[in-house]
Design goal:
This protein has 418 residues and is α/β, with parallel strands linked by helices. Helix 11 packs across helix 14. The N and C termini lie close together (7 Å).
């Protein structure tokens, strides 16, 4: 079967689908992955055909602690990102495509492309985005509103997403020759036909809500592709073998460094100071935040992009922004976390880490710019590294995740759809 995977957003929104695509290809399917051009090599390294989407995730940004103009500006940028994304998904859907696999970002657009071409589609979100009484919407903070309140907030969250996608969907349906259709009508139609939605996170971290409709399943993670012969850079390998396991610090696609206001320098100073005050060695990943610690040294090493699957098992703890992918990667490695959430679903994942005991309480990203930031972060790092219960909880989750096969569950659904 010819399969198109469409994923858009930051690295953590795209990379897991490379491993899924490789699994599907190994099973005999022809797989293309459509994403922003910056991920072309990532996709091709997994042995998949790359198709470009005209939607640079950094343009919707503010993802480093807030764009000028606040939430209204972020919504404007996101809506513009979506209007660019719709035609890209349509163009990436080549003749002969037999199935579309859609991420949370591309699904509200891809469903209409699938409808226009009579192609089956399957939603594969990395976050729990259906309303439930168990917890509030993942982008609405962590305070429970009670079961009825949580469900109501979840429905409201869906309506907010509908408004965000409204212009893009209207334009896309017109381009595809489809009649107008409301987002609510499309959602009801999909729910009525019982179409499955497979969520790519571990039930060990977020159990499947009992009030979800049949077909909404939590199947476990699918992981970024890592080549069998992949290795860490020699300088990093030398650093790891030269002393005790370090603490990793990285904030992924949180783009503080792109703001040009000195934020990256202050953030770097807080991170380096915290590592040294905690008395631990550190590996600092520059990322979109532009962290610029020592390039060489006995106690701290700054690196670029490296496979988490190879590095995290060799660390003492992971300090990260609590994105879904990095949260899962640290748990998979069985190491405790210090979550430093910034925005969107990150406070949700940070709270889940603390709830299962595999992470400390969250240190808000903005706190790293405040007075005493290095001391606060150092205290959290010390707890993560030295409290046995935190590591024991992380290892227990890792054992459960090791028994899961999210990609295999998707493969089975693909075979059923075929």
């Amino acid at each position: 079967m010819k399969i198109l995977i469409a994923a858009a957003g930051s690295y953590g929104d795209v990379a897991p689908y490379t491993g899924l695509g490789a699994r599907l290809k190994a099973a005999g399917h022809t797989v293309a992955l459509a994403a922003d051009a910056s991920y072309a090599q990532l996709v091709r390294d997994a042995g998949l055909e790359f198709r470009a989407l005209p939607a640079d995730p950094r343009k919707r940004a503010g993802e480093g602690g807030g764009a000028p103009g606040g939430k209204r500006e972020l919504m404007r940028r996101a809506a513009a990102f979506i209007r660019d994304l719709g035609p890209g998904v349509a163009d990436a859907t080549a003749p002969g495509t037999g199935l579309m696999l859609l991420s949370a970002t591309t699904a509200p657009l891809g469903r209409h492309v699938a409808e226009a071409h009579g192609i089956p589609s399957l939603d594969l979100p990395l976050q729990p985005n259906a309303p439930t009484g168990d917890f509030p919407p993942v982008v609405a903070g962590t305070r429970s509103l009670g079961r009825r309140g949580n469900r109501a907030a979840g429905r409201l969250s869906l309506r907010v997403v509908d408004r965000l996608y409204a212009d893009g969907v209207r334009d896309l349906r017109a381009r595809l020759g489809l009649p107008p259709a409301s987002a609510r009508a499309v959602r009801r139609r999909r729910a009525a036909d019982g179409r499955p939605v497979l969520h790519g996170f571990s039930p060990a971290l977020v159990p499947r809500p009992a009030d979800w409709r049949p077909g909404l399943e939590v199947v476990g993670n699918w992981w970024p592709y890592t080549a069998p012969d992949a290795a860490l850079p020699p300088a990093l390998e030398d650093f790891l073998t030269a002393g005790p396991p370090p603490v990793f610090v990285g904030f992924g696609s949180m783009a503080a460094g792109a703001r040009g206001d000195g934020t990256a320098g202050r953030l770097t100073a807080s991170v380096v100071g915290a590592l040294r005050r905690a008395g631990v060695r550190g590996v600092v990943q520059s990322g979109w935040a532009g962290l610029d610690g020592p390039a060489t040294g006995d106690d701290i090493l700054t690196v670029g992009e490296v496979p988490h699957a190879l590095l995290f098992p060799r660390t003492a703890a992971v300090v990260h922004h609590a994105g879904a992918g990095t949260t899962a990667a640290a748990l998979r490695a069985g190491v405790p976390a210090v979550p430093v959430p910034v925005t969107a679903d990150q406070p949700f994942w940070a709270a889940r880490l603390a709830a299962v005991g595999a992470g400390t309480d969250a240190v808000p990203f903005r706190a790293l710019m405040a007075e005493g930031a290095a001391d606060r972060l150092a205290e959290a790092i010390g707890r993560a590294v030295r409290e046995p219960s935190c590591r024991a909880a992380a290892r227990a989750i890792a054992r459960r995740m090791d028994a899961e096969d999210g990609a295999g569950e998707v493969l089975q659904a693909v075979e059923d759809a075929g």
